[in-house]
Amino acid sequence: MKSRITIVLLLLSIFLFSFQLGKKTYLRLGIVAPIDKDSLVFASGFKIFGESVSRMISPSLSAEKFKQNLELIKKAKGKLYMCNVMFPGEMKIAGPDVVEQDVLAYAEGLFSRAEQAEVSVIVLGSGTARRIPEGYDLQKAKVNFVQLCKKLAVSAGKHHIKIALENLQSQETNFINNVKAATEIVRAVNHPNFGLNADIFHMRRENESPQSIIDAADVLIHCEIAEHDTRTLPGIKGDDFKPYLRALKEAKYRGPIFISRRKLYTCANCRILPVFNQTS
Q1: Per-residue pLDDT at 94
Q2: Is the predicted pLDDT of residue 196 greater than 80, yes or no?
Q3: Cα–Cα dist 56/52, whole Å
């Protein structure tokens, strides 16, 4: 098992190392993991990691809890680069039940705390929050969502935060289920603080072509990856990611790639083995 993971991550490094070999730069590899596993993921080679909004920087957290989290973030060996699940499921951001004032107030508090925590990216997945009623006018939902996201982007910009809209598989939501649809939204929002997260796990679940990554090159700011069946780390099951990595290379992607996993593999036969990080 360990050798399989090593081989797959070496393949990742070959494709990604070649992006700017002459300039001696590398793409960073991050992982979504609880902050209390920071020592483990850092020792495994990950210099950046992701956590959830609800656990770390949500406006719903008390001031004291947020202060404690800031201390944890400050003491962490790795850098907390991103937080995901931007909105709680009960706060609707698409469809007929959106209360815009509440959404924007929540977002302003979130971005303020993200800035204090020096988080760079907030991933906008939030499948339950963006689910629309069956039979609801899809075009109307898109138009209204774009208008809301324009306002979110302005708020994020004031705090130097970037929002990365994530494509989510149809098992998780019924709105914006592929990179192509997410790209259309991002381009319509047209704001420097609102970009695209191409989640390869969800792309493969939806049988979406790697070409969508190439087509979205101008708005792509974040990328996540995991194996198809149970969201395991690359190399556990042996999924072939090469077509998607080639697409990232052709798109001249320069952001990090985050492993979005269900659990950490810490046994002797399946230790996390990242092999590339940005060094300049």
Answers
A1: 98
A2: yes
A3: 6
Q: What is the pLDDT of residue 236?
A: 87
For residue 247, the one-letter residue type is A
